[in-house]
Specification:
This protein is an alpha+beta fold. 38% of the residues lie in helices and 18% in strands. Strand 4 and strand 5 (29-33) form a beta hairpin.
């Protein structure tokens, strides 16, 4: 039996945001401690880019970690590379500018 959980979302600007995830399986367990986005804009359909990243990482990792013969660092490295490419495509598609909101 597999189980997932997320921390209690916080409300910001009327949108619930949660960037953390816990998954427990028969032969594995992991925690993903997410991050807030680097801007108040999101290049994804999720409330924050951090939320998108954690959910996608969880989805990919949970599929690949089961009965895995490879080292976890190799599996994670591949997934992180894929997510970087996917995010970059979304950013370019939406012409999303990653700027620090405090920078003039």
């Amino acid at each position: 039996m597999e189980s997932t959980s997320a921390s209690v979302p916080r409300k910001e600007d009327e949108q619930e945001k949660n960037e953390d995830c816990i998954r427990i399986g028969e032969n594995f367990a992991y925690i993903i401690d997410g991050t807030n986005g680097i801007t108040d804009k999101s290049a994804t359909e999720k409330a924050t880019n951090g939320r998108w990243y954690v959910q996608e990482l969880d989805k990919k990792l949970s599929k690949r970690i089961k009965n895995q013969d490879k080292k976890i660092k190799d599996v994670l490295s591949k997934i992180i590379s894929e997510l970087f490419d996917e995010f970059e495509k979304r950013v370019n598609k939406k012409e999303f500018e990653l700027k620090n909101s405090e920078t003039p």
